[in-house]
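On clarity, I found the account of how folds are encoded harder to follow than it need be. For illustration, here is how one protein appears when written out as sequence plus structure tokens.
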Amino acid sequence: AGDGVIRVTGTRFNVLLRDDDTVVTVLQGKVEILPPPAAPEAAKGAPEILAAGEQVVYDGPAGLTRASGVNLAAIEAWRERKLIFDVVPLTEVVREFNRYVDGRVIIADAGLSGVEITGTFAAGEIETFVKSLASAAGIRAVYLPGDVALLTGRD
């Protein structure tokens, strides 16, 4: 994934391939992670062995970075078309939510980017998602044709 190598050693794991990085989370067992062969020398090193509940992010030039405090329920929730966030910046929440919709949620007010969101959302339902943001964080939205919601500010 992301040109890296993931060696499975009898396990269950999740791989999230995003535009600028790859996230691997081990749900059960162990996984060995190697940076891609074309990675910069600074990013290369010994393979990372991850056990259940551990996560690593590979973003190319920076190499592998271990994450802490992994919420396995949140990682697996997508299988039930749910997205779970616990104190996550709105930019990350919107980025993840947009993976599940035909339309698009766009943050039109840069001041909203750092707003931290906690909640469980139904993947793929833009109107319900935006209404939840309004209720929980006072975020306003304008709807456009084509199933687009612009997040325009806070109350």
About this structure: Helices lie at 72-76, 90-98, 126-137. DSSP finds three helices and twelve strands in the chain. The chain has a mean pLDDT of 87.
